[in-house]
Amino acid sequence: MNILLLGPQGSGKGTQARILCEKFNFFYFESGAYLRKMAESNPEIKKIMDEGGLVPDKEFTSYLTAYFDQQNLYDDIIFDGFPRTVDQYVFLRDWLSKKKVALDLVLVIKISNEEAIHRLSARRQDPETGKIYNLITDLPPDGIDVSKLVQRDDDKSEAIEKRLKIYREETGRLIDELRKETKVIEIDGERTIEAIAEDLEKIVRDFKNGN
Ligand code: AMP
After folding, report:
1. By the 8 A CB rule, do 167 and 8 touch?
2. In 3D, which of 74, 102, 105, 135 has the Cα closest to residue 209?
3. DSSP labels for the chain?
4. Cβ < 6 Å from ligand 1: which residues?
5. What percent of the chain is predicted at pLDDT more than 90?
6. Across-strand partners of 201?
7. Which atom of ligand 1 is nearest the CA belonging to 166?
8. Residue to probe by mutation, ligand 1, list 16, 36, 55, most atoms within 8 Å of CB
9. What average pLDDT does this structure show over 21-35?
10. 49, 88, 119, 168: residue to mutate for ligand 1 pocket, most atoms within 8 A of CB
11. What is the pLDDT of residue 155?
12. Tell me: the pLDDT tens digits for 150-197?
């Protein structure tokens, strides 16, 4: 089965996706990480991302399908961050259907704008390892010098507001569309990581058992 995980920036999608991957052996695809890699050699993409905008589909969707083709990977994927617009969904849906698979389940982790801003402004990255920490919810271990951690450009307040606006508008439209075609389940994301993980595990298990 393929899962699409949606939620505003800071909703904890990455953390939950990793937990689900460990439990069920899914492949985790995170579009933000994939595009950040592309941005290392493409200053135009980097600029769009730093400002919190969406990278135009034509810049990456064909590379994306090639990426999955190369690995012969079409099923048991958790999609995080892609698709996030109706156009991207239609593109992925049609491509998956040619491979005789589909997006089977959509999980939406809900948090308020205030909570998202609060969490993202505390997010820091280790410039050497690329590892992400959160000064509120996911403190770096002993031995990591907090003063050396940096804030990603797109986690600064102006970019955050832009990213959240795009999420509410574009992804909001996408969620309305998805409801017509597939099973969409919303989860309260303003709880502990463990409580959310427990709910998600049950939902996925029930889905796999045909409930
Ligand atoms: P994220 O960490 O998922 O918020 O992604 C970081 C940034 O990557 C976004 O602000 C966009 O600039 C870019 N990005 C990620 N996924 C997509 C997508 N599906 N379409 C366009 N841009 C994307």
Report:
1. yes
2. 105
3. --EEEE--TTS-HHHHHHHHHHHH-PEEEEHHHHHHHHHTT-HHHHHHHHTT-PPPHHHHHHHHHHHHHHTT--SSEEEES-S-SHHHHHHHHHHHHHTT----EEEEEE--HHHHHHHHTTEEE-TTT--EEETTTBPPPTT--GGG-B--GGGSHHHHHHHHHHIIIIIHHHHHHHHHHSEEEEEE-SS-HHHHHHHHHHHHHHHHTT-
4. 9, 31-32, 35, 48-49, 52-55, 81-82, 84, 88, 154, 163
5. 86
6. none
7. 10
8. 55
9. 96
10. 49
11. 86
12. 998 888 888 899 999 999 999 999 999 999 999 999 999 999 999 999
Name the token pair of 123: 């997010």
Contact between 124 and 146 (Cβ < 8 Å): yes
> What confidence tens digit (pLDDT) does each residue in 90-99 have?
999 999 999 9
Using an 8 Å Cβ cutoff, are 10 and 194 in contact? no
pLDDT (tens digit per residue) in 63-114? 999 999 999 999 999 999 999 999 999 999 999 999 999 999 999 999 999 9
172 contacts: CB under 8 Å, gap ≥ 6: none
Nearest residue (CA) to ligand 1, atom 18: 82
Q: Which two tokens stand for residue 107?
A: 């999980």
